[in-house]
Amino acid sequence: MLCSRCATHATTDRSGHCAECAAAPTGGPPTAWAPPPPVRPVRSVVGLSYAVVSLLAAVAVIDVFAVYAALGVRAATGTMNVEAVEDHDRYAQALDQAEWLLYLSSSLGMMGVLATGIVFIIWFHRTRTNAEVFAPGTLRRGPGWAIASWFIPFANLWIPRWIAGDIWTASELDRRVPRTVLNAWWILWVLMLPVSQIAGRMWERAEEAEAIRQATLALAASSALDIAAAVLAILFVHRLTAMQETKTLAGPQPAPVMAPSF
Predict the structure, then answer these.
(1) How far apart are CA 166 and CA 150, in angstroms?
(2) 38 - beta bridge partners?
(3) First-to-final CA distance of the chain
(4) Are the C-beta atoms of residues 233 and 189 closer than 8 Å to each other?
(5) How many angstroms from the chain centroid is the CA of residue 168?
(6) pLDDT in tens, 171-192
């Protein structure tokens, strides 16, 4: 028969209620059972990490080329101080070639950084999404911040680092993992930004031979910092990817306690 309270087919008592409704308070029918919300699957970031690491390695190689080109211009410009140049045409050709290599390295560097930035942010956002599965409701900023935070002037110097710290904590399995790689990469990346801007302005304003030599030295230093930052970024991507893969294979774990990002 149909229960007069929950309208389910069941054996009813004299009052027309099934066993659950008869045992439930009289204020209304028992709370309807609902299945638990589906668990969002963890999406592997291994494939994306390979792409990010490859692009970062390419950027590092381009930076090595940029250091070579900048030092080449510096060396060619040094002959401008010589009062007598035996072969003016050869000197002019060598200087033009050195400057062309410098502009080529700059163009390749901008394209490399753009491509790397796009793929890196995609990887970063996916690791943040996975972190929500590892530690639901404990992360301090939504997944959208893993993308938007990179495009906020000035705030992009620390908000992405905070997000990375939360992702790191959520991805830890059963022990605290030192953040040496993460912190070193972020410090070098933040330091490289003003150095790169200063070097670029020095190069744009340089007209005299000595100013050109100083500008090219600054450009070489900027590229060297970028090489170090790219290497540390590779280590960071590799480490965080491995942490997430390990935690995924370990199965459900208690949600970690969010510690300060630094």
Answers:
(1) 16
(2) none
(3) 64
(4) yes
(5) 12
(6) 998 888 999 999 999 999 999 9
